[in-house]
Amino acid sequence: DAKEQGVDIRRYVPFIQMKAKERLKLENDLRRALEREEFFLLYQPQVQLATKELVGMEALLRWQHPKRGLVSPAEFIPIAEECGLIVPIGDWVLRTACRQNKEWQLAGYRPICVSVNLSMRQFLQPNLAGKIGGFLKRIGLDPRYVDLEITESMTMDKEKAFEQLTRLKELGVYISIDDFGTGYSSLHYLKNMPIDRLKIDRSFVAEVMEDSNNAAIVSTITSMAHHLKLKVTAEGVENEEQLQFLRQQRCHEAQGYFFSKPIRAQEFERLFLKPTIF
Ligand code: C2E
Ligand code: CA
Ligand code: CA
Ligand code: CA
């Protein structure tokens, strides 16, 4: 046991306390980050494989902390989710991404869809569809250019999820299941939920050429998506070989460092919104 191994638990108490304190500090900083305009969005292109055309972009949140520098969403989203701040932050993400998309349409670029990640708490808001509908109306963006990414775990409460998704579909936005294959889901659920697209998790795509199990999973998800008349997008595509494999599987779209890392709006406009680049 701990004592036998010479471990004294008391040595760890200040460390544990510091962790809690630091977390609280981060939470307080997060509380002010919106008004201090410390958030910004990066965009990553989504490419249609058959035509090599840009069809969409995923908005990815970044927090420029005055002292810590860039904080990863993997670090602060769970905190924001826990303390409820994810709702106002998520609203900001939605409005900012949709405004950007509208701005580019007004500038005369060919319209593309903007994908926005929703967290559990956001997804469970009672009047989510009404709120998003309000945003879109004010911004003047057609809902068909908005894609909401949710994860499988958000649909654990089947009835509630079905109701939310139905209202969102009535609004006219697109719905994607993010990180598909990593969470809970059943074929029954896929058949019955009003969704449009599966995004194959990047962990399967990453080793698709080396690991035959991953190849089988990607191939199965893609084929199933075809049969269920769902769109399918591969995440985390980093090289030509993976792309070739995905093309063979007739995967519809791909996203990943092979095309571009997530980048600032200005750079995205310069690199991707000008006449055909691929
Ligand atoms: P995600 O939604 O699965 O986003 C994809 C993540 O994979 C992004 O990390 C992206 O930068 C990274 N990625 C894209 N292509 C590649 C690739 O080819 N190779 C590798 N290794 N990575 C790639 P990021 O931006 O750090 O975001 C992490 C997660 O944070 C996201 O995972 C999402 O769950 C969450 N997140 C980001 N922005 C938001 C947001 O606005 N709201 C919410 N609720 N969650 C967000
Ligand atoms: Ca996502
Ligand atoms: Ca994902
Ligand atoms: Ca992910």
Automatic annotation (TrEMBL):
Superkingdom, taxonomy of origin: Bacteria
Residues of the EAL domain: 23-276
Name of the protein in its database record: Diguanylate cyclase (GGDEF)-like protein
Species, as recorded: Paenibacillus forsythiae
Taxonomic placement: Bacteria, Bacillati, Bacillota, Bacilli, Bacillales
Full-length numbering of the shown residues: 427 to 704 of 708
